[in-house]
Write a structure and sequence with these properties.
Family: Belongs to the PIGG/PIGN/PIGO family. PIGG subfamily.
Main location: endoplasmic reticulum
Helix content: 40-55%
InterPro entries: Alkaline_phosphatase_core_sf, Phosphodiest/P_Trfase, PIG-G_N, PIGG/GPI7
Strand order of the largest sheet: 4-3-5-1-6-7-2-8
Largest sheet: 8 strands, mixed
GO cellular component, one term: endoplasmic reticulum membrane
Distance between the termini: 31 Å
Number of strands: 11
Keywords: Endoplasmic reticulum, GPI-anchor biosynthesis, Membrane, Transferase, Transmembrane, Transmembrane helix
Bound molecules: 2-acetamido-2-deoxy-beta-D-glucopyranose
Length: about 550
């Protein structure tokens, strides 16, 4: 059979690309998507469950806050606020955390701990996959249902100053914006001054509802000289000043008759001991989350901050502003924020969040019936209905509030289980397409190798050593179709026929691949997504932030 070499070459190329594509499809978890194509609407909300009577409410409870200011400090690690450096360099904020009307949390960011996927996580409530690391530098408008879209859709006016990634993700959402470029890592002054210079005038205006600030300077200092650099202190002091400025003008001075305002301090990801980020070590994953508002009770002492997921902020803010929760959000609301609402409203918040999570679970997991959380939610919803019946009947006894507390607990457990099931699913790999993809590549490699070996020895036997040079072996051609002698230092391998030779090369590649894959699959599934944070994986992963990239490279080469 005669095969033109260009046809053959294109055939090889197509197979290789197909193989790589299949493999990558399996490796990057398919994002969980709701089956509804459009965005969440208030009118889609389920009615409040009431046994017997006809429910007449489908609304979210009224908003808890009037204006919201979100201060996002890039690479703000939890100890920069809650640790000793927080005490030294962020005294004003620390005072609010310890004895102000505030709630403090450690928000766990999921790897990859890189800015763009984190912004997506904070706004959509879903967990972006590894593919987002690749797209980090090339972010495009975010089309998925998200908090900012929902806010804008209900007429909220949003102002943004800071990292221009936001401007690229949300090109039409802001009433006013000023994007700073994160391109020059050596600049840690101007990036922040460009944000702060707008503060004085913006804080005096009353034509906005949501103000988002994204400060990049701290992250840049981390990249330049690490978390123990002498530049960190002054930067944190500067950030503390910003917090003070906002707190005194927006939070403590409120107009009579309006709802209280909310100030949110958070980080997108942390910073490792070397000042980098991207991986899944504790220092990179733990970010502080401080919610400050006169609506919250005053603290007696700080205590240990509760651990929440970063994505929990999304449904919390949505419900607190009376917006629908974004469709693909896997977060669950933070109960502390809703403590002051009436029992009926608290139950309603949990019901809405549970309904959203259970719809997402139903759409993304064919075995959703068997999930514990799903069943728990159904039961809680029923109990909620019975409670509402008593409530509507005007029962005000102690029994009523006791039942409500039980239902609250049931809901919270259901939310936790459903959120965990969804997050786990995001971490699953499609082993089948990975295998098919890999074997396609390998088969194609073996064809090329065999043919090239044949070609080499039949036609150009002088080119034979080249083949060996690739893998650092010295090759001595004997009888061409007969045997090869491979020599590597003292080891001599006699290989009979080109076929055995190709197989041998193939084996080498297979070994390499399986080692890389095995390592990465274990690494990623346990550390990035799994719930089991054993101490051994923790230590073994500390220094492997760059593994995601190595892996992508090894797939492609
Ligand atoms: C429904 O509306 C009626 C009249 O407006 C009110 O009395 C009743 O409490 C409402 N039911 C619920 C469940 O809110
Ligand atoms: C800061 O603002 C100035 C003036 O608008 C602009 O020229 C400069 O590029 C900005 N710096 C950064 C880092 O975005
Ligand atoms: C309230 O409901 C409880 C439980 O069903 C019942 O025992 C109690 O008598 C009711 N109280 C009133 C005032 O209706
Ligand atoms: C290792 C081995 O089996 N070598 C054999 C390869 O084939 C040649 C001739 O075809 C034999 O002489 C070798 O002994």
């Amino acid at each position: 059979m005669k095969l033109s070499s260009s046809v053959f070459a294109s055939f090889c190329l197509i197979t290789e690309l197909l193989g790589i594509a299949l493999f990558l499809r399996g490796f990057f978890p398919v994002p969980i998507k709701s089956s509804l194509s459009s965005k969440s609407k208030l009118s889609d909300l389920p009615a409040e469950p009431v046994v017997g009577s006809n429910p007449n409410s489908t609304k979210v409870p009224p908003p808890l806050f009037n204006r919201v200011v979100i201060v996002l400090i890039d690479a703000l690690r939890d100890d920069f606020v809650f640790g000793p450096s927080g005490k030294r360099f962020m005294p004003y904020t620390r005072n609010l955390v310890e004895s102000g009307s505030s709630h403090s949390f450690i928000a766990k960011a999921r790897p990859p701990t890189v800015t763009m996927p984190r912004i997506k996580a904070l706004t959509t409530g879903s967990i972006p996959g590894f593919i987002d690391v690749v797209l980090n530098l090339n972010s495009q408008a975010l089309l998925e249902d998200n908090l900012l879209w929902q806010a804008k859709n209900t007429g909220k006016r949003i102002i943004f100053y800071g990292d221009d990634t936001w401007v690229r993700l949300f090109p039409k959402h802001f009433l006013e914006y000023d994007g700073t470029t994160s391109f020059f890592v050596s600049d840690y002054t101007e990036v922040d001054n460009n944000v702060t210079r707008h503060l004085d005038s913006t804080l005096k205006r009353d034509d906005w509802d949501v103000l988002i600030l994204h400060y990049l300077g701290l992250d840049h200092i981390g990249h330049i000289s690490g978390p123990h650099s002498s530049l960190i202190g002054p930067k944190l002091l500067e950030m503390d000043d910003v917090m003070k400025k906002i707190h005194t003008s927006v939070i403590t001075t409120e107009a009579e008759g309006t709802l209280p305002n909310l100030l949110v301090l958070c980080g997108d990801h942390g910073m490792s001991e070397t000042g980098s980020h991207g991986g899944s070590s504790e220092a990179e994953v733990n970010t502080p989350l401080v919610l400050i508002s006169p609506a919250f009770p005053t603290k007696e002492d700080m205590g240990e901050p509760v651990v929440v997921e970063q994505v929990d902020l999304t449904p919390t803010l949505a419900l607190a502003l009376a917006l629908p929760i974004s469709q693909n959000s896997v977060g669950r609301l933070i109960p502390a924020v809703f403590e002051k609402a009436s029992l009926r409203e608290q139950l309603r918040y949990l019901h809405i969040n549970g309904h959203q999570l259970s719809s997402l679970l139903r759409d993304s997991n064919p075995g959703f019936h068997k999930e514990d959380g799903y069943e728990q939610f159904q039961m809680a919803e029923k109990a909620h209905g019975s409670w509402m019946k008593l409530y509507v009947e005007g029962n005000t006894s102690e029994v009523l509030s006791n039942i409500a507390k039980k239902v609250l607990k049931q809901y919270l457990e259901a939310l936790q289980a459903m959120s965990a099931a969804l997050s786990k699913q995001l971490g699953k790999y499609d082993m089948y397409s990975m295998m098919v993809g890999m074997s396609l590549i390998l088969q194609e490699m073996s064809v090329i190798l065999t043919l090239s070996a044949l070609w080499t020895c039949l036609i150009h036997s002088e080119a034979l050593p080249l083949h060996g040079a690739l893998i650092n072996w010295r090759l001595q051609p004997g009888d061409c179709l007969g045997w090869y002698r491979l020599k590597y230092h003292e080891i001599v391998l006699d290989l009979n026929s080109t076929w055995t030779f190709s197989l041998w090369l193939l084996g080498l590649r297979l070994l390499l691949w399986s080692r890389v894959c095995n390592y990465h699959i274990q690494f990623c599934s346990q550390v990035s997504f799994g719930e089991q944070w054993t101490s051994s994986t923790k230590t073994s992963c500390k220094n492997h932030n760059e593994l995601y990239f190595t892996f992508a490279l090894s797939v492609i080469t």
